[in-house]
Request: fold
Amino acid sequence: MNHSQWKTRRTKKLLGESVEESPAYAEAGYAFALGQAVYDRRTEIGLSQTELARRAGMTQPQISHIEGGGSVPTLTLLTRLAKALDASLTIDLDDGNSTFIFTPHNHRQQDEASPGGNHSAA
Reply:
């Protein structure tokens, strides 16, 4: 097949063709969605990566790696991140899609944020 016949995943989906997702592709989507949720919550409460790292017992490069979608952390690390971000974390993994929601513990901040907290999905 030459490049003129090659279709992207997006093109195939738009044409209604089936698209098979590899496990690595799905995992990358989870990592990206989590990274975006961490970034959104961190910036919402005005923390630097360095300050979040300090609160979570991590290093700034580790936070950068997570926010960049470079890793899928353990449950223990997710718990530490949620605590450091002063929020609870809800994760919905469904058929290759993922949603990570950090809901602030301080409900007074919800008036300023989107209802129900920050949502990031893949």
Residues 22-121 form a domain with the 434 Repressor (Amino-terminal Domain) fold (CATH 1.10.260.40). The longest strand covers residues 87-94. The two ends are 30 Å apart (CA to CA).
